[in-house]
Amino acid sequence: MVYLSANVYETALRYFTPTLLDPRRGRRRGDPVPRRRAITAAAELVSRQLSPYMLGGQYTLVDPYLHMLASWCPLQSQLLYEHFPSLGVHARLVAERPSVKKADADNAG
Predict the structure, then answer these.
(1) DSSP character for 24?
(2) CB–CB of 84/44 below 8 Å?
(3) Where are the domains of the chain?
(4) Predicted pLDDT at 20
(5) What CATH number labels 2-107?
(6) Helix, strand or coil, per DSSP, at residue 57
(7) Distance between CA atoms of 61 and 66, rounded to whole angstroms?
(8) 17-65: per-residue pLDDT in tens?
């Protein structure tokens, strides 16, 4: 959970909202190529860990958090899942859980 929140969250935040953490707001922070490499490296590391859940065969609290991170940008998520199939499998498994369906429905819109 700490790895996801300290590393993957930060990487995704910088990738999807590059101006958010820039004190000059409105200016892009850094070249997009290193950001793309960073998000790809994080996704690759996480996808190798999945089996099918983050901590192996059992669903844990880490899984809905990873599901949220991976689904931040739905247009990008499909590309992410195509490139890293284990993340796609994880997303489908987690999305089918009743509590996740309810949370997704409550936060849609």
Answers:
(1) T
(2) yes
(3) 2-107
(4) 65
(5) 1.20.1050.10
(6) coil
(7) 9
(8) 766 656 565 555 556 667 778 888 888 989 999 999 999 999 999 999 9
- Once rounded to an integer, what is the mean pLDDT over residues 87-95? 95
Whether residue 58 contacts residue 20, with contact meaning beta carbons closer than 8 Å, is answered with no
The answer to whether 11 and 39 are in contact (CB under 8 A) is yes
Structure tokens at 43: 């996704």
Amino acid 5 reads: S
- What does the block give as tokens for 106? 């409550």
Compute CA 11 distance to the chain's CA centroid, rounded to the nearest angstrom: 9
Alpha-carbon distances of 14 from 28, 36, 89, rounded to whole Å: 10, 10, 25
CA distances from 20 to 33, 46, 47, 73 (A): 18, 24, 27, 16
pTM of the model: 0.79
